[in-house]
Every structure is written in C-alpha cells, then in structure tokens.
Write a structure and sequence with these properties.
single chain, alpha+beta, 4 helices, about 35% helix, globular
C-alpha cells in the first residue's frame, strides 16, 4: 500500500481494551517508521492526511494563519527520530496554551477528585 502511494492515516483503533489513547499513537508512529515510512510521511499520516481524507485541509492538518491551531509543541525534532513525538513540551488547544506542568496538574487534580482513597494507584508521566 505504501509503495502504491495509498493515503495512510495514523490513529490506533481503540476497540482493543489494552490500547491507551495518546501512548499507543506514539507506538503506532514508530511502527510506521519500522515498516519503511519516512518520519515526514509518518507525521503527515497523523496530521495532514486525515485532513485530506475528510476534505478539510482548509481547516486542519497544517500550521498557518486561519486553520484550527490544535497542536503539540515538542522539545526535540521528530523528523530526526519519530520517538521525539513523545517529548511534549506544551499543547495548544482551542487557541489556549497549556504547558506540560499545567496538563499534569489538571490531570492529577481531576484524578484525585474521582479516586477512591481506599485504593492504591500508580501514575507514570514520561
């Protein structure tokens, strides 16, 4: 399919109970590189290609004035190594900037509000 230039889109199917949203997308991107895709093709599979498929390139899939600006800011260049997509520094969502520390704090606050204090738990943030 890759050699035939079939449009490939990233986005793990969450029908498997063992998949973790976000984490498994990074795993999927790495598997696409292992399968022979360039890092640029893999990044496009996660960004531009879905917008092309949906006919929404005027709104999604690129960084420019006008389109929706939901994106992640990375500490390292994913074109050099696709695993650098895991090096998230901040997220821009709905035009609002969220640094990593803020995201972690919001998650932990939400988790603690809903957690059963009688249960032990372990959270891992890379």
């Amino acid at each position: 399919m890759h050699k035939a230039r079939v449009l490939i889109m990233a986005g793990s199917d969450f029908s498997d109970w063992a998949l973790v949203p976000g984490v498994d997308l990074h795993n999927e991107l790495a598997l696409l590189v292992e399968a022979g895709f360039s890092t640029m093709e893999v990044l496009q599979a996660a960004t531009l290609n879905p917008a092309k498929f949906l006919g929404k390139t005027d709104t999604f899939g690129t960084i420019q004035v006008g389109p929706v600006a939901d994106l992640v800011l990375l500490d390292m260049n994913p074109l050099e190594d696709i695993s650098h997509t895991r090096k998230i520094n901040a997220v821009v969502l709905g035009g609002k900037f969220y640094p990593k520390a803020s995201i972690r704090a919001q998650f932990l606050n939400s988790f603690h509000e809903k957690a059963d204090p009688s249960q032990e738990f372990f959270l891992f943030f890379p």
